[in-house]
């Protein structure tokens, strides 16, 4: 295991204790609504602080970008850590046990190592570029589903945020009647991990943030899947735009066609 990955795993495990502790008494949470309409809790900040501290102590020359604090350290390094302390904060606030810590290392703009940890199920998803994807040290692969009518798709939305585009309903309508099921889970990071592990056949989302999808996208590709730009746009890739389709290779082409046709070009 690469030392970058092992350090990230150690940081995530230590930081997760704050989530486990606070999940037992949600009434004590300090909650603030952010300008974009999403929520911030005292737990998000504590987890982020632990992650930033451990990663900075280990690699003081690296840049660190996280959801709540933005750039904690920035030295224009080719190495950038992308951190989402709780992906699925709204679930966390409501006691819905579906959220995760997401950490990814990017080198020269390419995701090279990733960790996504679900503290409720004690599931640690890890990947290093070129070395495969794993769940608790067991190799994982994307699903073998070849028929869209049998597929289960996760839709990642920003309906409670100002970043919502109104396309979510269009995407849902496009999938309705063509797939076996659609799930909206509230955690893009875990949805991508579920694609990587074959639990979902695909995942799509718009206007997501880089810290939402960086770690999960590497897990998908290392598990044999495809991560691509959802909207036809030669100027950006999914990490820049936040518009992503992650899928098993057998479904990628047909899903891209269906989903792209559902979004009116004049609204892009």
Characteristics:
268 residues, alpha+beta, eight-stranded mixed sheet, five-stranded mixed sheet, 8 helices, globular
Detailed description of the structure:
The protein has 268 residues and is of the alpha+beta class. It has helices at residues 3-23, 42-58, 89-93, 167-175, 188-196, 210-222, 238-241, 249-262, and strands at 31-33, 39-41, 63-66, 70-73, 79-87, 100-107, 110-118, 123-128, 133-135, 138-139, 152-156, 181-183, 202-205, 226-229, 244-247. An 8-stranded mixed sheet has the order 4-3-5-6-7-8-9-10, with helices on both faces. Strands 12-11-13-15-14 form a 5-stranded mixed sheet, with helices on both faces. Helix 1 (3-23) packs antiparallel against helix 2, helix 4 (167-175) crosses helix 8 (249-262) and helix 5 runs parallel beside helix 6 (210-222).
Radius of gyration of CA atoms, rounded to a whole number: 18 Å
Low-pLDDT segments, ≥5 res: 160-165
> What is the string of helix and strand elements?
HEEHEEEHEEEEEEHEHEHEHEH
Overall 3D form: globular
* % residues in beta strands: 25-35%
Strand sequence of the main sheet, in spatial order? 4-3-5-6-7-8-9-10
Main beta sheet: strand number and arrangement?
8 strands, mixed
Helix content: 25-40%
- Distance from first to last alpha carbon: 41 Å
Q: Number of DSSP helices?
A: 8
Summing up helix and strand content along with how strands pair, one would put the structural category as alpha+beta
Q: Whole-number average pLDDT?
A: 89
How many β-strands, per DSSP?
15
């Amino acid at each position: 295991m690469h030392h970058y990955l092992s350090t990230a795993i150690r940081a995530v495990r230590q930081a997760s204790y704050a989530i486990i502790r606070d999940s037992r008494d949600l009434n004590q949470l300090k909650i603030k609504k952010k300008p974009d309409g999403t929520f911030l809790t005292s737990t998000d900040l504590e987890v982020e602080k632990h992650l930033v501290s451990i990663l900075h102590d280990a690699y003081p020359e690296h840049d660190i970008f996280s959801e709540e604090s933005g750039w904690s350290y920035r030295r224009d390094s080719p190495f950038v850590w992308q951190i989402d302390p709780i992906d699925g904060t709204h679930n966390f606030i409501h006691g819905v046990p579906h959220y995760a810590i997401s950490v990814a290392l990017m080198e020269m703009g390419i995701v090279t190592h990733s960790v996504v940890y679900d503290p409720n199920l004690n599931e640690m998803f890890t990947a290093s570029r070129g070395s495969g994807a794993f769940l608790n040290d067991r190799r994982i692969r994307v699903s073998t589903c070849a028929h869209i009518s049998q597929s289960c798709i996760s839709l990642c939305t920003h309906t409670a945020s100002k970043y919502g585009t109104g396309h979510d309903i269009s995407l849902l309508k496009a999938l309705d009647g063509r797939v076996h099921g659609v799930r909206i889970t509230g955690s893009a990071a875990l949805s991508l991990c579920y694609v990587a592990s074959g639990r979902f056949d695909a995942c799509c989302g718009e206007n997501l943030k880089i810290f939402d999808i960086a770690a999960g996208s590497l897990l998908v590709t290392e598990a044999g899947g495809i991560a691509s730009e959802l909207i036809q746009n030669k100027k950006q890739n999914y990490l820049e735009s936040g518009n992503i389709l992650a899928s098993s290779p057998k479904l990628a082409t047909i899903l891209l066609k269906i989903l792209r046709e559902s979004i009116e070009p004049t609204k892009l």
